[in-house]
């Protein structure tokens, strides 16, 4: 089973994917990461006690990879708990490369089954709290 590491100046977030629950979303993220898409991109949106969001190639929140992927909302792990990775979108089935990581469950429960949860930070949860708007993903590494 593949995993990921998001390397930042604040530390490394190690990710385990929800391949069973969101296989196409996981495959899309892995493909983008393996092609270096995320390397050097910023966390362009940081809202305390909510989310850190990145994956926009122009750093504004309006960009993407040039295509859209469908939401996958029917799996078991579709709950926005602390550390969960989820696809950002501008409406159902408009996701592409932007994703967010949840700070906590406090302000994210309304996102359940509206945004595709596709993984979780299993090591480096403290890094989520240290990320500030404009911080960079130095590199995203896919591991076995």
What labels would you give this structure?
8-stranded antiparallel β-sheet, globular, 8 strands, 12% helix, single chain, Cyclophilin, 144 residues, 2 helices, alpha+beta
Task: Present the secondary structure layout.
Elements: E1 3-8, E2 11-17, H1 23-34, E3 43-47, E4 51-54, E5 84-87, E6 99-102, E7 117-123, H2 125-130, E8 139-143
Antiparallel strand pairs: 1-2, 1-8, 2-7, 3-4, 4-6, 5-6, 5-7
Explain what the structure shows.
By secondary structure, the protein is an alpha+beta fold. It has a single domain (3-143), classed as Cyclophilin-like (Cyclophilin, Beta Barrel), CATH 2.40.100.10. The protein contains two helices and eight strands; from the N terminus they run E-E-H-E-E-E-E-E-H-E. The protein has helices at 23-34, 125-130, and strands at residues 3-8, 11-17, 43-47, 51-54, 84-87, 99-102, 117-123, 139-143. It has an eight-stranded antiparallel β-sheet. The longest helix is centred in the N-terminal third of the chain and has 12 residues, at 23-34. The chain starts with a strand and ends with a strand.
